[in-house]
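Reviewers asked in the last cycle whether our approach scales beyond single polypeptides. To address this, we selected a multi-component target totalling 223 residues and predicted its structure end to end. The input consisted of the following lines:
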Amino acid sequence: GENVEQHPSTLSVQEGDSAVIKCTYSDSASNYFPWYKQELGKRPQLIIDIRSNVGEKKDQRIAVTLNKTAKHFSLHITETQPEDSAVYFCAAPNTDKLIFGTGTRLQVFP
Amino acid sequence: DAGVIQSPRHEVTEMGQEVTLRCKPISGHNSLFWYRQTMMRGLELLIYFNNNVPIDDSGMPEDRFSAKMPNASFSTLKIQPSEPRDSAVYFCASTLQWNTEAFFGQGTRLTVV
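The resulting structure, written as structure tokens, was:
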């Protein structure tokens, strides 16, 4: 079955620094790769996604890169701010099954 | 649309009691997912439905857990009998199709004492 591994499990950065979270997946048939952000006490919400026909997608301070050959994709946050502090989840849905990575707790210190 | 609606928001029950969690997906969405979230295990997929039909329940931890989707606008997750280790936040999510955004409900925080 599909397996999604996410690293690191925790990440602490200084405000203004960049943060990178990486996910690897097992099913080569996967072609849609979303990232979700979950703030404390709230529900997960989509922040960015990428499809396999592109290698990179940006939206202001966040970007996602995809390497289909190596079966990994990464979330990049530049110029981090305290409000970026949250748990981030990747997913690599295969057909109709939506399984998430184990999550990365990001802390941005002022 | 009001989004995915879950009820109750909080549930405290005694061990051995039956618990029923409810979910109303976004109108028109074809897939519905139930997740359990704990600190130790993250977001676990319990079961999901396509067009009201259960597709994969391999994530359901035990026979004490069951889920139904009698129509396109309603699903339930039942735990009978409940145990303290079932304490977690349970999320319901719906999507238009598998490769589009999943919208989560606000979750039900279950505490079994």
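The interface with chain B takes residues 31-32, 34, 36, 42-46, 49, 51, 89, 91, 93, 95-103 of chain A (CB under 8 Å). We regard this as preliminary and will revisit it once experimental data from Aim 1 are available.
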